[in-house]
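lol forgot to send this yesterday, sorry. struct tokens for the thing we talked abt
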């Protein structure tokens, strides 16, 4: 399979208008093109009938050969997430030295005002990131071409592959999305809404508690005196196990502001 990227036909009604098109000339009379729109990231358009090859791919070789060069497990061979002994040790630590106090820590953290939690989180990142960039550079992520921020975040989050990911920890983690997205202005009103999923039309079974079967959310308004003509319907992920409306308000606000 030969890498290729070719110019599009001279006239194409399907191409987006006002775009900057950058092509390579690895194969003649082909039709794979990188589209650079005025707004948003570039993307690849291809109408070829043969096997597609990314025209901006810099790695050479087959997918197997490329994968063999990836920097797995923070670049440390001893850190194998499939190592049963390592997992057993961390399971023991999690059960007997972490689980008994983490509930109290989660609750205490959530009692801190959001603006304070945001400042603490950003301060920690501004201290940690330069140190990681200086000491570990781009050696912990899956590929050296990734950003320094990606490598720094990988060094923190990779350990979740070894520690047990319980529902409790999932719920706490996804509830903290708002610490990374600064609120632009205070909301004038937040109306909690909920729907009971115990109806036989939606659920058949025996839930442990009624709370587990309540789907909750918020109806948020920036200014009740000047209601908007537009509404953003925001659905957050969590596999029906984690995530909450409270933790998604700031990121939803950010997206709404961008698309308004």
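and heres what i got for the seq, position by position
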């Amino acid at each position: 399979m030969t890498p290729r990227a070719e110019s599009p036909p001279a006239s194409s009604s399907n191409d987006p208008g006002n775009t900057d098109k950058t092509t390579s000339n690895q194969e003649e009379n082909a039709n794979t093109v990188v589209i650079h729109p005025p707004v948003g990231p570039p993307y690849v358009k291809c109408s070829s009938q043969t096997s597609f090859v990314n025209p901006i791919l810099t790695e050479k070789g087959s997918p197997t050969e490329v994968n063999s060069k990836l920097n797995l497990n923070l670049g440390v061979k001893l850190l194998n997430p499939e190592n049963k002994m390592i997992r057993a040790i961390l399971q023991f630590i999690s059960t007997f030295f972490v689980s008994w106090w983490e509930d109290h820590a989660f609750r205490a953290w959530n009692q801190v005002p959001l603006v304070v939690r945001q400042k603490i989180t950003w301060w920690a990142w501004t201290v940690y990131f330069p140190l990681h960039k200086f000491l570990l550079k781009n050696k912990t992520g899956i590929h050296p071409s990734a950003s320094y921020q990606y490598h720094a975040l990988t060094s923190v989050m990779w350990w979740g592959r070894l520690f047990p990911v319980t529902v409790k920890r999932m719920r706490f983690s996804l509830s903290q999305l708002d610490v990374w997205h600064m609120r632009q202005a205070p909301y004038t009103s937040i109306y909690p809404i909920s729907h009971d999923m115990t109806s036989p039309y939606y659920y058949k079974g025996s839930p442990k508690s009624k709370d587990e079967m309540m789907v909750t959310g918020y109806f948020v308004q920036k200014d009740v005196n000047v209601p908007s003509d537009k509404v953003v319907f925001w659905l957050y992920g969590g596999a029906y196990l984690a995530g909450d409306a409270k933790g998604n308000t700031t990121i939803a606000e950010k997206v709404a502001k961008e698309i308004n």
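The beta strands are 20-22, 32-36, 43-46, 189-196, 214-221. anyway ping me if u want another try
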